[in-house]
Amino acid sequence: MTSSWTNPTVITQYPEPGAESIDIPWKDYEFYNLTNPSSQRVGLNGTLLHIARSPKYDIMNKTYFVRATGFNFINLPNQISGIEFRFTSDRAGRITDDTIQLCLGGEVIGVNRADLILDPIKIYGSDSDMWENKSLTIENIKDPSFGIVIRLKSHPQWPHKDTAFLTALELRIH
After folding, report:
1. Contact status, residue 96 vs residue 152, Cβ threshold 8 Å
2. pLDDT of the chain, 174 residues: tens digit per residue
3. Residue 111 near residue 136, CB atoms below 8 Å
4. Which of 37, 146, 31 is nearest to 89 (CA)?
5. Are the C-beta atoms of 69 and 146 separated by less than 8 Å?
6. What is the DSSP string of the chain?
7. What is the CATH class of 10-173?
8. In the chain, where are the structural domains located?
9. In whole angstroms, how far apart are CA 42 and each of 15, 26, 30, 55, 166?
10. What is the rounded CA–CA span in Å between residue 61 and residue 120?
């Protein structure tokens, strides 16, 4: 049995610890648009400049982290064999992944699946990929804090300050 593609009910954003704190125009209520991905999109309006630990050399523009949780899965299997994440976005042709990683209890878990591919619809994981989380249980998957963390950045070969737009963040459990 495999669950349906499921949208999050809670989406939050946060900066990297030690990063420069800036105010970016982000309206929490806009996240509700992600529950209707066919007609809405949410912009990652604004980027943050990393503060390199010393001196300040990391100037890659990156978004805040976006944490999507509260997936209300139905038809979960009795045992988990794999997890898929479908990410639909408008990357303005030059925005790539920095972080694509599962989370539980407010912490990222497993392996970061980020890559440099610029496709507007990307699927990470598979029906047999546990994201290096072999001990995940159905109880973990049902936990409201289980979800996905994403962060985008300007492509290293074509740096810029364009804005990415999120269209859908969906998980499926095998």
Report:
1. yes
2. 899 999 888 887 777 765 555 444 444 444 444 444 444 444 443 333 333 333 344 455 677 788 899 999 999 999 999 999 999 887 776 788 999 999 999 999 999 999 988 898 999 999 999 999 989 999 999 999 999 999 888 777 766 666 677 778 899 999
3. no
4. 37
5. yes
6. --PPPB--SEEEEEPPTTSPP------GGGGGGGGSTTT--EE----EE---SSS-----EEPPEEEEE-----S--SS---EEEEEEEE-TTTEEEEEEEEEETTEEES-----S---SEEEEE-TT--TT-TT--HHHHHSTT-EEEEEEEE-TTS---PPPEEEEEEEEE-
7. mainly beta
8. 10-173
9. 18, 9, 6, 34, 5
10. 20
Residue type, 58: D
Residue 118 amino acid letter: L
